[in-house]
């Protein structure tokens, strides 16, 4: 029941976000898209230790910033009999980047490998410019 309630709440929040269009990119700021290929959800959580208003992206002033994302994914544990019941894992990934450029687009990718979660920040050319410096996971 608890999993169903959490899933219903996540769907409700995502549908609310999906109905609101993304704002126009401010050319004086940098834009950070979020993506995951191994998880269920990655959302902007905090920018410079302040809660974000919209979890779908970061829009930052030029210079140095600390980004924190929420990353949800599943881990399969135990023997063959438990593969049908994955364990939910929630992580908060923090990374710093000192050189955000105005008008540039970046991509923050969260990924998992077993119980470990990782984040990388890519610039517009696809080069890794920062990696996570702090990972806090539950459970």
What can you see in these coordinates?
With 139 residues, the protein is mainly beta. It has one domain (28-138). Helices cover 13% and strands 52% of the residues. The chain has one helix spanning 2-19; strands spanning 30-36, 41-47, 50-51, 57-60, 63-75, 87-100, 105-113, 116-122, 128-131, 134-138. The strands form two sheets. A five-stranded mixed β-sheet has the order 4-1-7-8-9, with no helix packed on it. A hairpin with a 2-residue loop joins β7 (105-113) and β8 (116-122). The relative contact order is 0.20.
- Average pLDDT over all residues: 87
Terminal CA distance: 19 Å
SS content category: mainly beta
Number of domains: 1
The dominant shape is elongated
Strand content: over 45%
Query: Care to count the β-strands?
Result: 10
Instruction: Count up the helices.
Output: 1
Give the strand order of the largest sheet, numbering strands 1, 2, ... along the chain: 4-1-7-8-9
Low-confidence regions? none
How many strands, which pairing sense, and closed or not: the largest β-sheet? 5 strands, mixed
Rg (CA only): 16 Å
What is the percent of helical residues? 10-25%
Order of helices and strands: HEEEEEEEEEE
Signal peptide: 1-30
Protein name: Lipoprotein
Keywords: Signal
